[in-house]
Amino acid sequence: MLNKLAASELVLNEDGSVYHLNLLPEDIAEKIILVGDPDRVAKVSKYFDKVEVKKNKREFYTHTGTLRGERITVMSTGIGTENIDIVMNELDALVNIDLKNKEFKAEHSALQLFRMGTCGSVNPEVQVDNMLVTQNVVGLDGLMHFYQDYAFENEFSRNFTEKFPYPKIKPMLYFADWAEELGELYKDAKYHGNTATFPGFYAPQGRQLRLKAVDDKFLETLNDLGVTNFEMETSAIYALSKLLGHKAITVNNVIANRRRGEFSADHHASEKNLIEWVLERIIK
Ligand code: R1P
Ligand code: URA
């Protein structure tokens, strides 16, 4: 059969669930909140009226239930774009591949993905404990170099690509393809900005403990190129959503201001605030 996937390519568990997420198609809603930290899943689902599904494998914890009568899923992705590669492909398989026959479905289903994460700001004016919605994203992680060509161009990306001064690092640029739809839900966020996604927390984000990073001026250089904040997942979420035909938007709680050397005095309180803020907006 033309589209039939081999057992080595679409890997399933004994119960027919997708290999890493450990989920069956009926376990997820169309609206999915993605968080990095597995502990954040229960902090979100405690607001649901009812939780029907609780499953996990490795760092991927999933709770599905209803909130104000609407079905909703919250899932942890763990840290990094390599995990997002797994999350995006397996979520898409749950809705767009017939897992029994291992064939592509004729009808495409689009998911709505809401990343609710944390980040560090590189703009000295951006205050900690506030929400920042990602408009453009610079992928400095490398994942998308392995997929078919996909590049987005706008004024931000042209300026960034032209002036980015580190020839060994190849940026890939994407944007929030949510247009008026998902972005409208978050229009009153305190900040909208340009996020850079990295393959690490320390030197890749310019942190120097006992090891030197490429450049002492890394934060200033990226901020001068229009980058507002640093984190580790959004490039892959935006790019793979675009390629797979899903809608995605990221809002991160700013827990660090890297230029001022500040860290949130109570990031648990601002995490709670973020969860309530997002749930209020995505479920009417
Ligand atoms: C690093 O501490 C982690 O926190 C951020 C980064 O993207 C990375 O995953 O997001 P989460 O709080 O959603 O995990
Ligand atoms: N998450 C990151 O990846 N970087 C930060 O500075 C804070 C949260």
Automatic annotation (TrEMBL):
<dbReference type="Pfam" id="PF01048">
    <property type="entry name" value="PNP_UDP_1"/>
</dbReference>
<feature type="domain" description="Nucleoside phosphorylase">
    <location>
        <begin position="32"/>
        <end position="262"/>
    </location>
</feature>
<dbReference type="InterPro" id="IPR035994">
    <property type="entry name" value="Nucleoside_phosphorylase_sf"/>
</dbReference>
<protein>
    <recommendedName>
        <fullName>Uridine phosphorylase</fullName>
        <ecNumber>2.4.2.3</ecNumber>
    </recommendedName>
</protein>
<dbReference type="InterPro" id="IPR000845">
    <property type="entry name" value="Nucleoside_phosphorylase_d"/>
</dbReference>
